[in-house]
Amino acid sequence: MNWPAEAIWEAVAPLWPGFTVEILPEIDSSNTELMRRARAGRGEPVLLVAERQTAGRGRLGRGWQSAPGASLTFSLALPLTPSDWSGLSLAVGVSVAENLHPAVRLKWPNDLWVGDRKLGGILIETASAGAGPRQAVIGIGINIEAPPAQGLSTPPAGLRELVADADGPQVLLRVLPPLVRDLLAFADAGFAGFHARFDARDALRDRAVALSDGTAGTAHGVGDDGALLVHTAAGLRAVASSEVSVRPALP
Ligand code: BTN
Question: How do the domains of the chain map onto residue ranges?
Answer without folding.
Answer: 5-199, 208-248
